[in-house]
Amino acid sequence: MAQDIFGGKVYGILRDGGNYHCYNVVPTASGDCVFDLTSEQFGGEKLCYQKNPEQFREVHFAKEEKRLRYEALKVELEKALGL
Question: Which of 53, 45, 60 is nearest to 14 (CA)?
């Protein structure tokens, strides 16, 4: 969703169990800005934001549950932003 608004790319940190925790990298005039809107779910764990594979919607959205969750969240965000 942040990618829809700010552009950039999404990368993933491989987690135990084979899932990826995704975060955004957005280009700015002063260099890339890495931001992770959901890192608090890992408590005090230090996450590595370097050399992770790029993630693609086509892969993640192949699972309908993920696509539907994304679409519902996007609607709520657009409402909150008055879009």
Answer: 53
State how beta strands 9-14 and 20-28 pair: antiparallel
| Of 19, 32, 24, residue with least CA distance to 1 | 24
Positions of the chain with pLDDT under 50? none
Q: pTM of the predicted model, to two decimals?
A: 0.81
